[in-house]
Amino acid sequence: MRVYWELPPRPAVDEVEAAVTVLASTDTQEEARLANVAREEAARLREAEGVPGELLAVLREARRAVVRLHALQQRKDAAHVVELKRRFKVLDGLIQRASQVVSPSGEGSSGSGVEMEEVVEEMDARRNDV
Questions:
Q1: Which residues in the chain come in under a pLDDT of 50?
Q2: Which residues, other chains included, contact 111 with Cβ-Cβ below 8 Å and sequence gap of 6+?
Q3: What predicted TM-score, i.e. pTM, was given to this entire model?
Q4: 3-state SS record for the chain
Q5: Distance between terminal CA atoms of the chain?
Q6: Cβ atoms of residues 118 and 108 within 8 Å
Q7: How far apart are CA 9 and CA 80, in angstroms?
């Protein structure tokens, strides 16, 4: 039980769904933002008089780097949530296996009729109360 308390909070279902959506759409969003940066830079290039081309190139690369860094951070955060879900699923399976070992009937529940979901919810509630 102590091991369970040391875990981070379990991600909510809507957090996992949002993370999966972010992972699926981040590349498209990044490409759109990079295209937008390119359009804005092309407009600036036409308007810029007396500004060295090298300075404009540095500005363009800096803006592209910011867009890529933002997309990377989004992917990292979303992947973390998805990985937490995966790890908790593994842990739930281990709890289920332990329950089956303790319960000789093989039905996955103890003699008192406690289900794995109830144990997990109780452990989550206790951890959140601390």
A1: 108-111
A2: 103, 105
A3: 0.65
A4: CHHHHCCCCCCCHHHHHHHHHHHHHHHHHHHHHHHHHHHHHHHHHHHCCCCCHHHHHHHHHHHHHHHHHHHHHHHHHHHHHHHHHHHHHHHHHHHHHHHHHHCCCCCCCCCCCCCHHHHHHHHHHHHHHC
A5: 14
A6: no
A7: 12
Average pLDDT, the chain: 83
Q: Which candidate, 36, 47, 33, places its Cα nearest to that of 56?
A: 47
Query: How far is the C-alpha of 29 from the C-alpha of 22, rounded, in Å?
Result: 9
Q: How far is CA 48 from the centre of its chain?
A: 41
Residue pLDDT, tens place only, 26-56: 999 999 999 999 888 888 877 777 888 888 8
| Burial of 74 from C-beta contacts in 10 A (0-12 / 13-18 / 19+) | middle
